Fold:
Amino acid sequence: MNFKNEYKCLSQNKFSNGEYKIIPIRFEDRIDIMKWRNEQIYHLRQDKPLTEKIQEKYFTQIVLKLFQEKKPNQLLFSFLKNEKLIGYGGLVHINWIDKNAEVSFIMNTQLEKENFKSHWITFLSLIEQIGLEKLKMHKLYIYAFDLRPHLYDVLESANYFKDAVLNQHCYFNKQYLDVVIYSKLKS
Structure:
């Protein structure tokens, strides 16, 4: 499968910060992404493990079309360190009228223990270049099940603020959990 690997809505499609960069999501990364999503399903809005068939269908029927849309509902990126895939994420649930978007990001599960904060901070700095600068969004936000409190310190250090708590908003492992929303406004 040959992805065009350029979003029509962006005049620039590669963003870098030293040895790190984000580029439009690559078809070749789909299996690693599937693996990480399945390993981290506990904090994602994903109700069952992905299979290669489901992942293939998602990339060919959903992702491929995003490159051609003038105002896609999501922009997904492969996150690389020294040209090696270490994560993926993007802007999802893009609201072009109200100028806001949710930031989504997951990294290689094996990197989470020692590199969680640094990779999150780097990814946020890159995705903000797209969301706040290039697309001129007014607000970016992170929607998080209240399962990883260590994420909140990372977000606050990147100048996100606690915007809302949706009490008992999701049902997971036979219990209702809060959803915490952190936001950043265009300054």
